[in-house]
Amino acid sequence: MCYHTKNDSVSKGGDAPLNRNDSSAGKDISAALCGLYGSFGYARYKMNKFEEYDLYARNKDFLVADRVVTFTDTNGKLMALKPDVTLSIAKNCRDVPGEVNKLYYDENVYRVSKGANAFREIRQLGVECTGEVDDYCILEVLTLALSSLKAISGEYALDVSELSVLGELLDGCGLTSSQKREALRLVGEKNLHETETLCRAAGIDEQTADVLKTLITSYGKPAEVLPALKALLPQSAGLARLERLTEALGDDVVRVDFSLVSDMSYYNGVVFKGYVGNIPESVISGGQYDRLMEKMRHTSRAVGFAVYLDLLEEFSFSETEYDADALLLYGDANDPADVMRAARKLVGEGKRVCVRRNAPEKLRCREIIDLTEGGAVHG
Amino acid sequence: MDKMLNIALPKGRLGEKVYAMFETAGFECPSIREPGRKLIFENEAAGVRYFWVKPSDVAIYVERGAADIGVAGKDILLEYEPDVYELHDLGIGKCRMAVAAKKDFRDNRARTLRVATKFANIALKYYNSIGRDIDIIHLNGSIELAPILGLSDVIVDIVETGATLKENDLVVYEEIVPISARLIANKAAYRFKTDAVNELVQKIKNL
User: Fold this and answer.
1) Domain segments of chain A: what residues?
2) A192 and B87 in contact by Cβ < 8 A?
């Protein structure tokens, strides 16, 4: 077999290399994650793209972004393109005593992106566990989050918190609701200097203020962080639970971080976020949302997480130097069947082939096979 | 992941002051003081890489992870609400966000207040908190001109010494919030460079 080639003659060099956003990265990862969730008995949950707008109007604070795409359905009902999946799962949950529903989803949602101030279609994958959720279920969801991170990148971190620890502390301070909101914001920012100012303004006693400041500054491995906190808050059931769960997780990358402050009117108990190297935001976010279930008049409890696949696609660049491995040029004199045979031969060798009459101006390829100049494929 | 600490500094006088603090704390990068138009400087031995960035862009560089840490004014943090950690108040670049108006201004609550500002979010939040209906007029510069020409009733802007207001016959009507430079960090970078970030913050705090 031989190729008559004309290497490097036209299309190497030229403009800057093309950075190809490798959207297949997201697809490969989602297949791996779906397999992972399925292996733990989680069933695929497929849903309609639309939901009555009323659901989001009543639970606006639960949404990451408060604007949704709405339209009027043929029956006059105001509908919305789903900005979120968890609310729909929570709404449709059936309360059956003694049962637990384990689901995963891979859906598109529609939200306003923060930077662009425009609606975007965002692919979201996630896991939800509803029903009589116990500590095993929470540990299982945490384990799946950790395994998901491992599947995404070799460099990862999982931060875990227990909202009741901070909630009980703030409830005991006699703060107004706006002061409590402010305190949560400051904890979320790890903003020690303004927390000190707030504690003074709200008349929080020195001992409580010290505990609050310790919570803000505590970040690290459970074994390093929790003993000191347990000494300050010996009665805290949340800390004891966090210790049990993180111990059972047993991974060196798990960190305790009380700056994870999800909205306490929806979330409670364990909350967590996952990070991977080279992506500047959390790629996994989750926790217990029993309070959302209560708001929807369910007796079930719930825990789950979402994986933000759009972030993975956005930041998973595979910088390929070439658009194609081979450019196959043909002309009127070439029999289409011969051209196809040549192309198939190259594809069969695992090469990416671009078949054209003329060489595209900005195409970069490793080699050029010109069938018009007597180039032929033998074999 | 890059093990160097990427630091976004605000271009200008404030940035120079901030760099001096970092230098004293042991994160020096002598090439930054050389004249020229370079924007990136690094000192591998100290483990730091500095960028000069437009002050209002520092929070964007940090939020999006192009920089691990940076120094931004509290005004920018309040206006754009970037999802970052605010780890330390550097106590420099002090000024205040204030409502200013003509000397004879009287707030007539029977009608909507016209507010000219670069800081629409801060103005909206402030007036919402006191239940005042306002009409925001978004301007990008020479804000002081708006009440003089009758374009707005008041302005919401940063006041440092008050000299510009005085020269234009305006006075501070209400103070909204004190402003100073804050050390901010990217939330993901904090996970992967925890020790380096905490060491830097501690050394800056110890100055």
Assistant:
1) 10-155+277-321, 163-255, 324-373
2) yes
Between strands A100-113 and A118-131, the pairing is: antiparallel
- CA nearest to A314, candidates B85, B64, B7: B64
Burial class, A213, CB count within 10 angstroms (exposed 0-12 / middle 13-18 / buried 19+): middle
> Residue written as tokens 């074994």?
A223
Judged by a CB distance cut-off of 8 A, whether residue B128 touches chain A is no
Write down how long chain B is.
207
Q: Could you give phi then psi for residue B162, rounded to 5 degrees?
A: 90, 0
Token pair, residue A73, equals: 């359905």
pLDDT of res. A3: 36
Instruction: Tell me the chain B residues in contact with residue A275 when contact means C-beta distances shorter than 8 Å.
Output: 187-188, 191-192
| Mean pLDDT for chain A overall | 86
| Structure confidence at residue A14 as a pLDDT band (50, 70, 90) | very low
B173 to chain A, any CB pair closer than 8 A? The answer is no
Locate A367 and state its tokens. Answer: 């080699």
ipTM for this model = 0.78
pLDDT in tens, B27-82: 999 999 888 888 999 999 999 999 999 999 999 999 999 999 999 999 999 999 99
How are strands ordered across the β-sheet holding A254-257?
Answer: A43-44, A100-113, A118-131, A301-308, A284-288, A268-276, A156-162, A254-257, A219-220
Interface probe for B, chosen from A117, A158, A192, A312 (most Cβ of B below 10 Å), is: A192
Residue among B191, B193, B194, B195 with most chain A CBs within 10 A, to mutate: B191
Maximum Cα interatomic distance, chain A, rounded to a whole number of Å? 91
Write the CA distances from A219 to A160, A186, B61, integer angstroms.
10, 15, 24
Q: What is the CATH number of domain A10-155+277-321?
A: 3.30.930.10
At A288, the amino acid letter reads Q
Q: Reduced to 3 DSSP states, what percent helix, strand and coil does chain B have, rounded to the nearest 5?
A: 35, 30, 35
Contact residues, chain A, for B70 at CB < 8 Å: none
Read off the pLDDT of residues A121-152 as tens digits, 9 standing for 90 and up: 888 899 999 999 999 999 999 999 999 999 99
How deeply is A12 buried, as exposed, middle or buried, from its count of CB atoms within 10 A (0-12, 13-18, 19+)? Answer: middle
Residue A37, CA atoms < 13 Å, CB-side half-sphere: 29
